[in-house]
Amino acid sequence: MSAPARSVTAGRDLVPQLFSNPELIRNVRTQLRRGRMLAAAGICASISLTLGYAFHAGANPTNPGVWAREWLTWMVGIQAVVLAIGGGIACVQAISREKELNTFDFQRVTRLTPLELAMGKLFGAPAQAYFVFLCFMPAALMAAALGKVRPSFLIAAYVFLILNSITFHAVSLVMSLVIERAASAGAALLLLLMVGFSNVPGFGIMELGPLSPLYADVLILESDWGAFWRATSGVSVEFDQTSVQFFGTAVPHPLAAAVIFVTFTGWMVLALVRNIKRDPAVYELYSPGQFLGLILYANTILIGFFAWRRFSPLTAQASLLVFNVLLMGVLGLALLRNRDQVRRRLRELGAKGASWAEAAWPAPYLVAGFLLVGPAVNLSTQWMKNAAPPWDLGLAFFRVAFIALWMVRDTLFLQWMNLRRLKRPLPMGMLYLMVFYLCATIFSAMLDLYGAAGVSALMPMGVLGLEPAGWARDAMGWNVALLAQLVPIAIFVNLLHDKLEELAK
Q1: Is the omega angle on the peptide bond into residue 390 within 30 degrees of 0, that is, cis?
Q2: Structural domain containing residue 408
Q3: Number of Cβ within a 10 Å radius of residue 50
Q4: CA–CA separation, 278 vs 301, rounded Å?
Q5: Closest Cα to residue 175, out of 47, 89, 68, 82?
Q6: Phi, psi of 249 (to 5 degrees)
């Protein structure tokens, strides 16, 4: 068969392969037994009819369609909770329960590819939630017809809801993959918090509407698609939930959210496919290069939807850098190697495994991350704010360099701690850092030195409050504080080199 013919055949077989997936079939057969389905359908019908009668009985005769639209919003809200939260909790328990029952190892050695196993769990684990979602659909469609809801908005609301739910399901599966058995309840609680926080428009720093499944209730009652294209430049405080700004261009919020859902789900599926058939002891969510790609992806969303009009240039840059400190912190923690991983690498590389380059791990990837993100943040700030004062591009890059060296310093310390002979080396290292910063904060607060160049050598976050006037007044002090970061970096690299040579013996 020729290559084009093979590709056409593969395209035709894609959907049938999904529905013939053994893991999907196993989950569906387990969850959708006849008695359980009849009970669920009966409960859903009772709730739907009771709500419909209650709204109809209390309806205002002068507005005959209002009660139906209220009924519809309740139906869609219930569907959102069932599908996103109920399905998410099922996904949180999907892999962790298999590990607890000691059946997950059997799934890892089956002939299913990692993608097939991941897709089977992604759409199979919440099978019961999908069934209950469908059981509420007749009442929702009836309410939409009686309330004269515009069909295109009805379809858009359900597309938004389903894509949103799949995203939460994918995040929940990644949680289920990496959590301990006893932590599944905590992961379920974390999922509930994520759903709640996703209903906050833009989290205060982005001009982006809610990403919660409950936004479907807002979308379903709209009637004019033109409203989604109106610009929001005249809105000074409140975020417009129908149209958002992406790099200064008005974009419909449902479209922007759908793109975010699809792309973020892709990143979660990548993590699942990379790890779902690996031994849990060697899980690695992403490769270092993929982590950098994820950081760039997150920055594209944050910078693109950032609420530029609400911040001065330096405050905007500081907010973006704080966000990247969190991202780089996650990157650094994910790349840390324990003693077993270092020994394995020493066996693979031989004498090169104890080189100075290996001793600097994972500093090169942190530096690369800031080299990619720093210019993007600074140049985007200058472009979006049109270099409005107070702004100094040199100071902006100085801030990035200061924060980058600080992140490298602390990450190398944690890497050194992680190679020491301690019962819990990494938690102990993080505890030492917390105590250090607590003492430094108390010291600087008592002496009113917070933000000074000398103290910022210990607590570099003070550089985020530095303005052009202060930088010009004490340029020498700040440059010395920047170079002072190199001293502990050199010390920890040397300690790590000694530790590698010790492990190599």
Answers
A1: yes
A2: 308-505
A3: 10
A4: 31
A5: 89
A6: -110, 130
Cβ 370 vs Cβ 328: under 8 Å = yes
Together in a domain, 113 and 181 = yes
**Whose CA is closest to 128, among 40, 234, 26?**
40
Same domain, 38 and 70: yes
Residue recorded with tokens 């959708």? 32
- Tokens 């190892």 belong to 105
Sequence-distant (6+) residues with CB within 8 A of 93 are 125, 176, 184, 188
- Look up residue 196 and give its DSSP letter: H
- 299 in any annotated domain: no
Helical H segments across 101-206, by residue range: 104-108, 114-124, 127-135, 137-146, 151-178, 184-197
Same domain, 16 and 165: yes
Answer yes or no: do 250 and 326 share one domain.
no
Residues 276 and 390 in one domain: no
- What's the domain count of the chain? 2
pLDDT tens digits for range 291-336 = 889 999 999 998 888 888 788 888 888 888 988 888 898 888 888 8
Residues 338 and 275 occupy one common structural domain: no
- Asked if residues 229 and 245 have their Cβ atoms less than 8 Å apart, the reply is no
Query: Same domain for 220 and 325?
Result: no
What does the pLDDT read at residue 1? 43
In whole numbers, what is the pLDDT of the chain averaged over residues? 82
* Residues 55 and 67 sit within 8 Å (Cβ to Cβ): yes
pLDDT at 136: 95
Terminal C-alpha separation, the chain: 56
**Whole-number Å distance between alpha carbons of 69 and 216:** 13
Query: Are 119 and 200 spatial neighbours (Cβ–Cβ below 8 Å)?
Result: no
State the pLDDT at residue 458: 81
